[in-house]
Specification:
Protein name: Enoyl-CoA delta isomerase 1, mitochondrial
Helix content: 55-70%
Order of helices and strands: HEEHEEHEEHHEHEHHHH
Strand order of the largest sheet: 1-3-5-8
EC number: 5.3.3.8
Number of helices: 10
Catalytic activity: (3Z)-decenoyl-CoA = (2E)-decenoyl-CoA; a (3E)-enoyl-CoA = a 4-saturated (2E)-enoyl-CoA; (3Z)-hexenoyl-CoA = (2E)-hexenoyl-CoA; (2E)-tetradecenoyl-CoA = (3Z)-tetradecenoyl-CoA
Subcellular location: Mitochondrion matrix
Number of strands: 8
Shape: globular
Subunit structure: Homotrimer.
Bound molecules: octanoyl-coenzyme A
Distance between the termini: 17 Å
Structural class: alpha/beta
Largest sheet: 4 strands, parallel
Oligomer: single chain
Strand content: 5-15%
């Protein structure tokens, strides 16, 4: 109901992306949500609570896989952010080539992990720094900020704001603009800009999985996540 990134969602997402990547007729992808007001609620917190070490490893590998495939995609990728986009939701947008968000200040976007008592891994941070620069990323990450759309635009986290009814049209126009360039030159340029970050995760993938498992299975972290989930439920009642 909130497009949370569960293991199943991430697996399906990677398979779909791979199919499109291998389809020579497909040169660009627009990522958006079919759910009104929510782009994605980020990683599915229930996948990180009370599960086995094997499950944490499998889940984290799937998150890494999504990151590697989307950040390294040869296609033009445009995020049409039509609602709230915390944490992993923000990450999906960050991995695209261009971000367009609905101008409604009620929708916010950011890497808010610190608010949950957890820490965004270095590769989340790398993509954030590559979009907004070091200082803005540092402050935003330390505070776990969720930026309302106008602020997200001001700090460069999203490239453009549009009225809700113009989002799809704008995303198609931007994609067409990017696709007007020769694929080869654009793809090599993209790869040059992103290679260092991609190589870094590939080189440290197993170590990163072990770090995640030892971090997430700590009782203090499990407690923070449980409290956060309770807070989400209480907010509703
Ligand atoms: N995972 C699992 N369940 C979720 C999540 C989530 N991320 N987000 C919401 N839900 C559940 C809620 O608990 C609620 O469940 P129920 O119906 O059983 O009570 C249901 O979805 C609907 O949620 P809301 O009532 O809150 O729906 P709203 O429309 O009012 O709000 C929001 C939607 C804005 C998306 C809101 O739900 C929200 O803010 N969710 C939390 C988002 C969040 O903080 N996500 C962070 C996830 S962590 C992450 O992505 C990166 C982790 C990096 C790992 C670090 C290494 C250790």
């Amino acid at each position: 109901p909130v497009n949370s990134l569960s293991l199943d969602f991430l697996t399906e997402f990677c398979i779909s992306l791979e199919k499109l990547e291998n389809d020579r007729a497909c040169r660009g992808v627009i990522l958006t949500s079919a759910i009104p007001k929510i782009f994605s609620s980020g990683l599915d917190i229930t996948e990180m609570c009370g599960k086995s070490m094997e499950h944490y490893a499998e889940f984290w590998r799937a998150v890494q896989e999504m990151w590697l495939r989307l950040y390294g995609s040869n296609m033009v990728t445009v995020a049409a952010v039509n609602g709230s986009s915390p944490a992993g939701g923000c990450l999906i947008a960050l991995l695209c080539d261009y971000r367009i968000m609905v101008e409604n200040p009620k929708f916010s976007i950011g890497l808010n992990e610190a608010q949950l008592g957890i820490v965004a891994p270095f590769w989340f941070k790398d993509t954030f720094v590559n979009v907004v620069g070091h200082r803005v990323a540092e402050r935003s990450l330390q505070l776990g900020s969720l930026h309302p759309a106008p602020e997200a635009h001001r700090i460069g986290l999203v490239d453009e704001l549009v009225p809700e009814d113009k989002l799809q049209e704008k995303a198609v126009a931007v994609t067409a603009q990017w696709l007007a360039l020769p694929d080869h030159a654009r793809q090599l340029t993209k790869s040059m800009m992103r290679k260092a970050a991609l190589d870094r995760l590939v080189a440290h993938r197993e170590e990163d999985i072990q770090n995640f498992i030892s971090f997430i299975s700590k009782e203090s972290i499990q407690k923070s996540l449980r409290m956060y989930m309770e807070m989400l439920k209480k907010k509703k009642s």
